[in-house]
């Protein structure tokens, strides 16, 4: 993670102003795009449940690439059209940091994953995250509390979103931030690599 770009000092309110979202409205950001692997159907199914508790909840879908939107009919039939915003392709460095900072929670629940930079970047911005319960999570965050949902479980996802928005998650968020800062930091890891290279060169 480049902490000069993704960090807790990113200005608040920039993304909300751009998309005309009030500061009082709760926002869920889904930054992985619209490919089937990212389980957007599961995310969309969760909206109907969350809306019963948080009526004005807004889910913002975006990604690094433009994709066709295949969910318009489902969204309309579920009565959640006003709760969904598709913003298309966003510049990762110039736009996503502001969206992460203005989100109440970032959701990344793909069918499979390895080491998702988008999740780490959200953590670097001190935003709560919900992820699929996959092997990489246990490898990277086995000693920390992280909100995990079984793949495809929209009810559990909805419950975790409501819980995240309704609770004080400061300790968990700070712990995840510190983990990323200490171990997934572009500059720190670059320095480690530089030191290792220097030892090899001069030994």
Please outline what is shown here.
This protein is an alpha/beta fold and 203 residues long. Helices cover 45% and strands 14% of the residues.
Describe this structure in words.
This protein is of the alpha/beta class and 203 residues long. Helices cover 45% and strands 14% of the residues. The chain is built from nine helices and six strands; from the N terminus they run H-E-H-E-H-E-H-E-H-E-H-E-H-H-H. Strands 3-2-1-4-5-6 form a six-stranded parallel sheet, sandwiched between helices. Strand 2, helix 3 and strand 3 form a beta-alpha-beta unit. Helix 2 packs across helix 7. The model has no long low-confidence stretch (mean pLDDT 92).
List the helices and strands and how they pair.
Elements: H1 14-18, E1 27-30, H2 40-53, E2 58-63, H3 72-77, E3 84-89, H4 96-102, E4 105-108, H5 117-124, E5 128-132, H6 135-141, E6 147-149, H7 154-166, H8 170-183, H9 186-202
Parallel strand pairs: 1-2, 1-4, 2-3, 4-5, 5-6
Helix pairs in contact: 2-7
Keywords summarizing the entry:
203 residues; six-stranded parallel β-sheet
Q: Pairing-aware structural class of the strands and helices?
A: alpha/beta
Mean pLDDT: 92
Largest β sheet strand count, sense and barrel closure: 6 strands, parallel
SSE run:
HEHEHEHEHEHEHHH
Number of DSSP strand runs:
6
* Rg from Cα: 18 Å
Which spans of ≥5 residues are poorly predicted at pLDDT below 50?
A: none
């Amino acid at each position: 993670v480049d902490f000069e770009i993704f960090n807790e000092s990113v200005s608040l309110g920039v993304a909300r102003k751009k998309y005309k979202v009030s500061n009082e409205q709760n926002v869920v950001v889904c930054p992985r795009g619209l490919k089937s692997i990212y389980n957007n159907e599961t995310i969309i199914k969760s909206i109907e449940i969350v809306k019963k508790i948080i009526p004005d909840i807004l889910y913002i879908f975006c990604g690094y690439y433009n994709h066709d939107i295949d969910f318009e009919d489902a969204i309309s039939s579920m009565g959640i059209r006003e709760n969904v915003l598709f913003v298309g392709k966003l510049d990762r460095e110039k736009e996503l940091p502001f969206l992460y900072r203005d989100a109440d929670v970032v959701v990344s629940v793909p069918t499979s994953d390895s080491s998702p930079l988008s999740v780490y970047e959200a953590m670097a911005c001190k935003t709560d995250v919900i992820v699929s319960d996959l092997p990489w999570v246990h490898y990277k965050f086995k000693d920390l509390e992280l909100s995990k949902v079984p793949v495809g479980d929209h009810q559990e996802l909805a419950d975790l979103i409501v819980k995240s928005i309704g609770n004080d998650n400061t300790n968990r968020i700070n712990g995840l931030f510190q983990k990323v800062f200490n171990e997934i930091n572009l500059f720190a890891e670059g320095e480690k690599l530089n030191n290792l290279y220097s030892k090899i060169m001069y030994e």
